[in-house]
Every structure is written in structure tokens, then in C-alpha cells.
Amino acid sequence: MVPVLLLLMSINLGCSTACSLDWSAFWRINSQRTDTLQLLNEMKIMPVLSCLQDRTDFRCPWKKGHITKGKQREEATCCYSEMLRQVLQLFRPQATRDAWPERTLGRLLTSLLSGLEALEGTAEQTPPCLTTLAMAIRTYFLGISRYLEKKGYSPCSWEIVRAEMQVALSTFPVPAERTSRKRRSSMQESPLR
């Protein structure tokens, strides 16, 4: 329970308001993200250490600090839906269905779709994803798809990709909660402050 709360707090504190969500969508996205990370953990089919020979650097554009600070981070939050679309696409091929139990895979896909639905409901209120960032995300996932093809969708290659997706999803900046004026003023007047 504590790791989940810490994850939610870090997501909340680390987000910007450039692409913000209403309270309901914000919590749906945080819940979806937590569920997806938990499902990816449950999908572990073998120890990652036994697959070290298959490890590769996918050159994740946001893991090395490229979009983790300032304005770039604010702009990146607008691209979270693109990130979810790409993860969804990655886990849809028939080869994926052979790698994991159908029920677990179905729950993962449902979780990803839930996140997309929450974001699509707010699409008219948020700016679009920057073209350069959207291209960087697509290029990253294209590299992962090519890696899987090259490795013949082996169990070790899927294990490497599963672990990569856990890191990628947990480090990608998500939109912050949009605090309404009424809630903001009541928070400022609170006797607990």
C-alpha cells in the first residue's frame, strides 16, 4: 500500500499544469497507471537476469532526462495519450497472445484502454502533443517492435520488453490535476495550513 501511495504522490508532485485534467480524469489516470504497472509486474514470466544476453538500450527519450525538467516536461504531459496508444499497440499482436495468459493480457489491454478513455474525454481542453515529442515516442516504440521481430518474439525478448515498459510507464510524466478556483480558495482558507 505504501509504494502505491508514494507513486501517486510522486506523480502528483512531479506534474505540471500545462496539460491538466479534471479531478475525476486525474484519478482515473493515476489508478490506470498503477493498475498497468501492477499487471506488468504480474506478467513476469522469468527472471530478467536470465535474459541479460537479450538486453538492449531502446533509447527511451524521457528516461535520460531529456523531458524531465521545466517546459519540456510540461509539454510531455500532453503526450501521455500517445504513450498509452503505443503501449496498447505493442501488446496487441498475435505474438503477444502466445507470450502471456489471455486473461492477464486482457486485463492489461483493458487498463490501457481505460486510461485512453479518461484522456480522450479531456482532449478538447488540453493542447495537442508536440510533433517532435510524438515522433520520438513513435520511434522509440518502433525500435522495440523491430527488436521483438529480430528476436523472434522469444520469451526472453518479451521479458526484456515487459521490464522496459514498467520503467517507461513509471517515468513518463502524466498530466496534473486541474484544481478548480473554488477548491483552490477553500484549500487556502483551510485552518490546517
Write the layout of secondary structure elements.
Elements: H1 2-14, H2 23-42, H3 70-76, H4 80-90, H5 94-99, H6 102-120, H7 131-150, H8 155-171, H9 181-188
Helix pairs in contact: 2-6, 2-8, 4-6, 4-7
Query: How large is the share of residues in beta strands?
Result: under 5%
What is the CA-atom radius of gyration, in angstroms? 18 Å
Secondary structure tally: strands: 0
Just give the CATH class. Answer: Mainly Alpha
Report on this model:
The chain is mainly α. The protein has a single domain, classed as Growth Hormone, Chain: A (Up-down Bundle), CATH 1.20.1250.10. The protein contains 9 helices and no strands. It has helices at residues 2-14, 23-42, 70-76, 80-90, 94-99, 102-120, 131-150, 155-171, 181-188. Helix 2 (23-42) runs antiparallel to helix 6 and helix 4 (80-90) runs parallel beside helix 7. The relative contact order is 0.22. Mean pLDDT is 76; it is low at 1-17 and 181-193.
